[in-house]
Each structure stands twice: as C-alpha cells, then as structure tokens.
Amino acid sequence: MLGYGYAHHSVAAASRPLPEPERRAKRVAELTGKLSLTSDQAKQLDAILLQWHGEMKAIHDQSDAQIEQLRQKGRDQIRAILTTEQKPKFEEFLQKLDEERKRNAPK
Fold first, then answer.
1. Rounded Cα gap, residues 72 and 35, in angstroms
2. Buried b / exposed e across 86-99, counting CB within 10 Å, b at 16+?
3. Distance CA 55, CA 12 (A)
C-alpha cells in the first residue's frame, strides 16, 4: 500500500508541470553546469529568461483572447441556425466541452 502511494505520488508529481520560477531556476542550473557559467553570467541568464518568459506569456495571453473571441463567434453562428428545441442540447454540449477543456488545460 505504501509503495503504491509513493509510486502514484511520484508519477503524478512528474506529470505536473513546475511553476515558472522553479523551471527557470532548473534551466539556469542546467546551463550553468553545462556551460560553466560564472555567477554573474548565471544571474544575467536568469534575468534574460525572466524577461523572455514575460514576453512569451503576453503573446500567449493575447492569442488566447483571440481564440476565445473566434470560439464565441462560431458558437453564436451555430446558435443562429438551431431550432428552439436544439438550442438547450447545444448548450449542454458546450457546457461539457468547456468543463473538459478546463480539466485538460495546463496549469
């Protein structure tokens, strides 16, 4: 039982992505070791990665907003062709789809 719990926890922890600061620290440590960076270079690398992450996140957030707008536009177009009887079934379908998307979204 204890072994199962440990193994299950290890697998779950391995599949869970690290928070950004931890990922960045790991990357800095990895490159520091592989490239024999000085402490000054490691600090500069950390600053570069931090800035890069911020810029990438801004682009990602912007594209997410555009995708959501397109998703809503498509859903509205579908709603416009449905009958009164079909609309509740479509809304139920969308609710399940959205719940699944939230469960599968990266955290």
1. 48
2. eeeeeeeeeeeeee
3. 29
- Asked whether the predicted pLDDT for residue 75 surpasses 90, the reply is yes
How confident is the model over 86-103, as pLDDT tens digits?
999 999 999 999 999 888
Q: Which two structure tokens, joined as six digits, stand for 94?
A: 């969308």
What's phi and psi for 34, nearest 5 deg?
-70, -35
pLDDT exceeds 90 at position 107: no
3-class SS letters over the chain: CHHHHHHHHHHHHHHCCCCHHHHHHHHHHHHHHHHCCCHHHHHHHHHHHHHHHHHHHHHHHHHHHHHHHHHHHHHHHHHHHCCCCHHHHHHHHHHHHHHHHHHHCCC
Q: What is this structure's pTM?
A: 0.56
